[in-house]
Specification:
With 179 residues, the protein is of the alpha+beta class. The chain has a single domain, classed as Aminohydrolase, N-terminal nucleophile (Ntn) domain (Glutamine Phosphoribosylpyrophosphate, subunit 1, domain 1). Helix content is 34%, strand content 30%. The protein has four helices and twelve strands; from the N terminus they run E-E-E-E-E-E-E-H-H-E-E-E-E-H-H-E. The strands form three sheets. Strands 6-7-8-9-10 form a five-stranded antiparallel β-sheet, with helices on one face. A four-stranded antiparallel β-sheet has the order 11-2-3-12, covered by helices on one side. A hairpin with a 4-residue loop joins strand 8 and strand 9. The longest helix is centred in the middle third of the chain and has 17 residues. The chain is globular and about 40 Å long. The protein starts with 5 loop residues before the first strand and ends with a strand.
Length: 179
C-alpha cells in the first residue's frame, strides 16, 4: 500500500469585487479506492488574513505549509514576498526539492500559485485551479464569473461541485473560506 500514490484534490480560488474565496473538495484516494471523503485541504494562516490551499502529496503539502507560515511570519504584511521566498527555498534546498505539491495562496490583494519548480504565478484573471480537478473547476469558474452575478464564494462552491461531477479524484464535499 505504501507504494500507491494519493490522488484527489481540487483547489479553486476566485476574486470578485473586494472578496476572494478559496475552496477545496474533500476526497482522497489511494489507487482506485476512495479512502477519505472529508479531508480539509485549505487553511487560514497569517492571523486569518491569508488562505492557503494545497494539492499533491499530503505530507509534502503540510511540510510546505509549515515553511510558508514561517516565511509569512518573516514578512507578515507581504504575502507575495513570503511566497517568493518559499519558492526560492523550495527550488534550492535539496530536501525541499523532493516535495511534490502545489500551493494556492490568496489574501485580500494577491492570488498566487507556487510550485516546486520554483514557479510563482499570479493569474491574470485572479482565478486559480490546481489539483486533478483544477482545470474543470477553473473552466466552470470562468464561465460563472463572466455570466452570473454570483459572489466569489458562490462561484467557488458551484465550480467545485461541477468538478466533483467530472473528475473521479474529486468529490462534492467542499469547504470554502473567504477573505
Amino acid at each position: 500500500m505504501s507504494s500507491e500514490i494519493f490522488h484527489g484534490t481540487t483547489i479553486l480560488s476566485v476574486r470578485r469585487g473586494n472578496k476572494v474565496a478559496l475552496g477545496g473538495d474533500g476526497q482522497v484516494t489511494l489507487g482506485n479506492t476512495v479512502v477519505k471523503h472529508d479531508a480539509l485541504k485549505i487553511r487560514r494562516v497569517g492571523g486569518g488574513k491569508v488562505l492557503v490551499g494545497f494539492a499533491g502529496s499530503a505530507a509534502d503539502a503540510f511540510a510546505l505549509l509549515e515553511r510558508f507560515e514561517k516565511k509569512l511570519a518573516e514578512f507578515p504584511d507581504n504575502t507575495r514576498r513570503a511566497v517568493i521566498e518559499l519558492a526560492k527555498d523550495w527550488r534550492t534546498d535539496r530536501a525541499m526539492r523532493r516535495l511534490e505539491a502545489m500551493l494556492a495562496v490568496v489574501d485580500a490583494k494577491t492570488s498566487l500559485i507556487a510550485s516546486g519548480a520554483g514557479d510563482v504565478i499570479e493569474p491574470t484573471d485572479g482565478i486559480i485551479g490546481i489539483g486533478s480537478g483544477g482545470p474543470y473547476a477553473q473552466a466552470a469558474a470562468k464561465a460563472l464569473l463572466d455570466h452570473s452575478k454570483l459572489s466569489a464564494k458562490e462561484i467557488v462552491e458551484a465550480a467545485l461541485k461541477i468538478a466533483g461531477e467530472l473528475c473521479i479524484y474529486t468529490n462534492t464535499n467542499v469547504k470554502v473560506e473567504t477573505v
